[in-house]
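Q: Sequence in, structure out?
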Amino acid sequence: MEVVAVRLTAEEVAALDAYAEQGHVSRSADSRQQMSGANND
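A: Exactly. Output:
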């Protein structure tokens, strides 16, 4: 797995944290799920 740094606004970080907490996963895991389309209903 490769490490990728991104810059997010405070609002984007808050949204990412909320999604991750809701799914009981880390920020990284949630980001990977979102980018892979795993949570797209």
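The chain has a mean pLDDT of 88.
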